[in-house]
Predict the structure.
Amino acid sequence: MTMVITDAKKQDIDGIMEIERSSFSVPWGESGMIFEIDSEDAYVPVLRDGGEILGFAVLHMFENEGELFNIAVKKEHRGKKAGKKLLISLIKFAERQRLERIFLEVRESNLPARGLYTKAGFRELGVRKNYYDHPKENAVMMVYDVREGKNR
């Protein structure tokens, strides 16, 4: 398997949305995803193997900070370092853009994602009660200090 990361294009939308819908109980709509792909304030990397899209992420920038809105990998490719590759690409992008921090929220029960973020150098900031719906669940807020750039 030769995984490469490219910038998302509008023609990738079907593959991205397939992963989005199978990964989240409340998936984004196609128009929101296209908005991020087209936005100058967002970085939307796609992880592919040949023509197949294996995963994607959405990092939105607000001045000198970024927020990881979304990261998802096809179920059959989870646990094979695909998510790590996407996350590292986001961190490297943030470094190039001279962002100071990357924030994210993650379901409290999503231990694989929380482990991935912690290994990449994110730290927990606190909990947002009942942040998610379907099912109702707390969100753990996390931050990565880009200037420290550690744990990679």
Summary: Residues 19 and 76 are 11 Å apart (CA to CA).
